[in-house]
C-alpha cells in the first residue's frame, strides 16, 4: 500500500481514536488529523498544548466543553451523506476540550500550530459557507467550515461532496510553494467516506517533474497525505464520495496553481 494512504483501525483504541495523523507520522511540519468514534455516554478530555484544534462533528450529537466555554447537545446530522453542514468547535492552543457523546458519535480532530490569537467558539451549520464549484461532471459541493476569512492561526478546514461519476479537486491543482501572491505552501490531508461503503475513490498525487506520481485507490474511512503536488479525485459511477480537507502551512491563505496542461478545462466558453 502507498505510504500516502492512512488506514483506520477496525475498533477505536482506549481514547476513542480510529485514525491518527501527526506531523511526525506524516513527515511534515503543520497538519495533524484524527478521527474519534465514541459510544453514547463516553467522554474524552484532552489538552491542546501548542496546537489549535477544530473539532468537526462528522455524525452524532455531543456536549463539548473547553476551559471557558461549553455547548450542550450540539449536532444535527447522523451521517456526512445527509449533506448538511456540520457543527464544529474551534479550540485555541493552550486550552483543553472535553467531548461527551450524547449518541453514537464520530468527530474529526483537525490541528495545526497555534499562536493563542483567538477564543474558543462554536461554528454552527448556519455559519458554514455552502457553495457549488465546477460544472458538468466536475461539479461538486462545498462546506467551508474554517476558511481563511474566519479567525484561526493556521487551520483551514473544508468538506467536499463529489457525486458519483464526477471529479473534484479538478482541474488538478497544487499549493506546495511559498510563492505568494501566486501560490501558498500548504500541507493537506484528505479524509474519505464512500457511499455505499464497499466502494472506493481514485486520487492521483503527482508533481511536475514526476518525482512523486502515484494513483491511489482510496476506501471508506481512509485518509490520504498530500505533502506536495497536484491531487485530483474521482468518484466512480455508483459511489458518492465525501472528503474532509485539513490544510496548514507557514501562511494561512489558500492560493493554488493549476496544472498548466489541464487549466484549459476552466476556460471553456461560458464557464
From TrEMBL:
Gene3D superfamilies: Jelly Rolls (2.60.120.10). Transmembrane segments: none annotated. Its EC number is 5.3.1.30. InterPro entries: Deoxy-glucuronate_isom_IolB, KduI/IolB_isomerase, RmlC-like_jellyroll, RmlC_Cupin_sf. Keywords: Isomerase. It holds the Pfam family KduI. Signal peptide: none annotated. GO terms for biological process: inositol catabolic process. The keyword Cell division does not apply. GO terms for molecular function: 5-deoxy-D-glucuronate isomerase activity; glucuronate isomerase activity. PANTHER family: 5-DEOXY-GLUCURONATE ISOMERASE (PTHR39193). This is 5-deoxy-glucuronate isomerase. It comes from Paenibacillus montanisoli. The gene is iolB.
Amino acid at each position: 500500500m502507498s505510504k500516502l494512504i492512512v488506514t483506520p483501525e477496525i475498533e477505536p483504541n482506549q481514547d476513542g481514536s480510529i485514525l491518527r495523523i501527526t506531523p511526525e507520522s506524516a513527515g511534515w511540519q503543520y497538519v495533524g488529523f484524527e478521527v474519534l468514534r465514541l459510544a453514547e455516554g463516553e467522554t474524552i478530555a484532552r489538552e491542546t498544548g501548542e496546537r489549535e484544534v477544530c473539532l468537526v462533528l462528522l455524525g452524532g450529537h455531543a456536549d463539548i466543553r473547553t476551559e471557558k466555554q461549553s455547548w450542550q447537545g450540539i449536532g444535527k446530522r447522523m451521517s456526512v451523506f445527509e449533506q448538511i453542514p456540520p457543527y464544529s468547535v474551534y479550540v485555541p492552543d493552550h486550552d483543553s476540550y472535553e467531548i461527551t457523546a450524547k449518541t453514537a458519535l464520530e468527530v474529526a480532530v483537525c490541528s495545526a500550530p497555534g499562536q493563542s490569537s483567538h477564543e474558543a467558539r462554536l461554528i454552527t451549520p448556519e455559519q458554514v459557507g455552502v457553495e457549488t464549484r465546477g460544472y458538468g461532471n466536475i461539479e461538486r459541493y462545498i462546506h467551508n467550515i474554517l476558511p481563511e476569512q474566519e479567525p484561526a492561526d493556521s487551520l483551514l478546514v473544508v468538506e467536499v461532496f463529489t457525486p458519483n461519476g464526477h471529479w473534484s479537486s479538478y482541474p488538478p491543482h497544487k499549493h506546495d510553494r511559498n510563492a505568494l501572491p501566486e501560490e501558498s505552501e500548504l500541507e493537506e490531508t484528505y479524509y474519505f467516506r464512500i457511499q455505499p461503503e464497499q466502494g472506493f475513490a481514485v486520487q492521483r498525487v503527482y508533481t511536475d517533474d514526476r518525482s512523486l506520481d502515484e494513483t491511489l485507490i482510496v476506501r471508506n474511512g481512509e485518509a490520504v497525505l498530500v505533502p506536495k503536488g497536484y491531487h485530483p479525485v474521482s468518484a466512480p459511477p455508483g459511489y458518492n464520495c465525501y472528503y474532509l480537507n485539513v490544510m496548514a502551512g507557514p501562511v494561512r491563505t489558500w492560493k493554488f496553481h493549476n496544472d498548466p496542461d489541464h487549466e484549459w478545462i476552466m476556460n471553456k466558453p461560458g464557464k
